[in-house]
Structures are given as structure tokens and as C-alpha cells.
User: What shape does this take?
Amino acid sequence: MYVCLCKGVTDKAIKQKVAEGVCTMRELKLCLGVGSQCGKCTCQASQILHNELVAE
Ligand code: FES
Assistant: This one.
């Protein structure tokens, strides 16, 4: 499922990054570009990020 349409970032891509050690939205934005354009995806992206961090 696409989370960020502007940058074509999927939830899978976010989960993959968390598995690689990303643990903040700032890092996620730097490596995937998520939330760097319209910003609409920021809320959902951070939710996925936090869910993954809790699950780890
Ligand atoms: Fe992610 Fe626009 S949908 S920045």
C-alpha cells in the first residue's frame, strides 16, 4: 500500500527502513523523502514507524 504518493513510498519500504535501523520521522524523510512534499502522508507514516518500533 502506498503511504506517500508524492514520493511513491509504500508501508513496506518504511518497515524495511525500520528493520535497517531508522527510528525517527526525520531519518525516514531523509532516506525515503516521505512527507517532504505535500506532507499529507506524515501522520500515517509516523503511525507505521511507531507501530514498527513497538513491534521490534
Ligand atoms: Fe507524502 Fe505528499 S504524499 S509528501
In short: The chain is about 55% helix and 10% strand. The CA atoms of residues 28 and 34 lie 7 Å apart. The chain has one domain: 2-55.
